Automatic annotation (TrEMBL):
Transmembrane helix keyword on record: yes
Domain GYF: 4-47
Keywords: Membrane, Transmembrane, Transmembrane helix
Protein's UniProt name: CD225/dispanin family protein
Lineage, highest ranks first: Bacteria, Pseudomonadati, Bacteroidota, Bacteroidia, Bacteroidales
Localization, UniProt: Membrane
UniProt superkingdom: Bacteria
Main location: membrane
Region Disordered, residue ranges: 72-91
Parts of the chain that traverse the membrane: 107-128, 157-179
Amino acid sequence: MKFYVAENEKPVGPFEISQLVARGLKGSDLVWAEGYETWVRADSVYEIKEALAAPTTQADAYRETAIPQLPNENTTSLCPPPPPYQQPYQQPLQQPQQNYMAPPKSWLVESILVTLLCCLPFGIVGIINAANVNSQWSAGRYDEAEKSSANAKRWTIIGAISGFVVGIIYIGLMVFAAVSGNLE
């Protein structure tokens, strides 16, 4: 039986077992022969393991290093499979289409200011929506990013208006209390 050996990530051969031993085959080298499904370690093949264990003379090694005969045109031989450490061809992952437009405004700074200065609940909702804008845009979910931007804007404006209205009402009540306290 003739074996191929994996050298420099390419199959080389076919060789007789004695030729493999003369070439300096090690037990950890990968070999393949017709009928094998995959590449195997050389020391897992009984015949090769026995040949590796047997001592050889220098004359035998010289005689066995002859270049192997190329197959005739009339003979058919199976080509060995690629070595097992080569990755099978995989289609590259589809990259999301590059969008050269700028992402929509996130409204993050405005939402934080509204939260601190005007209206805590509406500002927090604005911050949550604003924080999602850039991550959704980067992930290629452009429609969701636009929607989050619109929601952040809406909640920021609602928070600012409600804070302004509450402030006006508070100032009005203070003025009313001051005026009514002086009249008595």
